């Protein structure tokens, strides 16, 4: 802290300078805290806003007839599962390889229009939405503090809120097959290669 004199018309005033104390480092500006999910009083979570503008990390083709991870019913048509990560969580993971507290990962399912001869495969309509949330105050260590939420397996609109899914619906598969990846299948998403 230093003092200097500032000249205003007709008078000199002492001004304290706190430049060093008020400086924000470049790292602080580039790495804001992870934008966390907000839970409702009943433990439900609201549908995320703007997730299609989050970091897209990859897509997976799910064939017709496969059991859906959303409702455990057979998929009526081929679907793409597009995965998006909230940007601050994505940057933190790519920087240090650890999913930070508050991480949100969305998987949106899109029905595929069956192509005719000489046509290309393309998306037809949005068909379902899920989200993974990392919160150590709500979810146990055995799940890597991850909770799983489903907003429906149907065309939009999806449900506005979702309750945590039972552990055996999603977490047990992640625990068994992705334990070495913090229970998130990072190796299946090209955009998560570090």
Describe, in plain words, how this protein is organized in 3D.
By secondary structure, the protein is of the alpha+beta class. The chain has one domain (34-192): Chalcone isomerase, CATH 3.50.70.20. Helix content is 13%, strand content 31%. The chain contains four helices and nine strands, in the order ββααβββαββββα. The strands form three sheets. The protein has a five-stranded antiparallel beta sheet with strand order 4-5-6-7-8. Strands 1-2 form a two-stranded antiparallel ribbon. A hairpin with a 2-residue loop joins strand 1 and strand 2 (11-17). It starts with a strand and ends in a 17-residue tail after the last helix. The model is unreliable at 15-30 (pLDDT under 50).
Please, what is the CATH homologous superfamily? Answer: Cytochrome P460
CATH class descriptor: Alpha Beta
Q: Strand-and-helix sequence, N→C?
A: EEHHEEEHEEEEH
Determine Rg (CA atoms, Å). 23 Å
Number of domains: 1
How many strands appear in the DSSP assignment?
9
CATH topology: Chalcone isomerase
Runs with pLDDT <50, length 5+?
A: 15-30
Beta-strand content estimate: 25-35%
Shape: globular
Query: How many H/I helices?
Result: 4
Largest sheet: 5 strands, antiparallel
CATH architecture: 3-Layer(bba) Sandwich
Head-to-tail CA distance between termini:
42 Å
Structural class: alpha+beta
Helix content: 10-25%
Lateral arrangement of strands in the main beta sheet: 4-5-6-7-8
Mean pLDDT: 86
């Amino acid at each position: 802290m230093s003092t200097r004199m500032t000249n205003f018309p007709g008078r000199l005033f002492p001004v304290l300078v706190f430049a060093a104390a008020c400086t924000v480092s470049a790292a602080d500006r580039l790495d804001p805290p992870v934008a966390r999910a907000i839970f409702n009083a009943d433990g439900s979570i609201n549908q995320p806003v703007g997730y299609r503008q989050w970091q897209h990390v990859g897509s997976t083709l799910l064939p017709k007839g496969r059991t859906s991870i959303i409702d455990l019913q057979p998929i009526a048509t081929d679907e793409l599962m597009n995965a998006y990560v909230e940007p601050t969580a994505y940057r933190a993971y790519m920087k240090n390889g650890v999913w930070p507290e508050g991480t949100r990962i969305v998987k949106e399912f899109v029905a595929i229009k069956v192509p005719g001869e000489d046509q290309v495969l393309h998306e037809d309509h949005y068909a379902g939405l899920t989200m993974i949330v990392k919160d150590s105050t709500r979810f146990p260590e055995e799940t890597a503090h991850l909770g799983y939420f489903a907003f429906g397996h149907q065309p939009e609109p999806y449900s506005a809120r979702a309750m945590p899914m039972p552990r055996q619906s999603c977490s047990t598969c992640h625990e068994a097959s992705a334990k070495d990846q913090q229970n998130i299948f990072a190796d299946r998403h090209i955009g998560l290669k570090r």
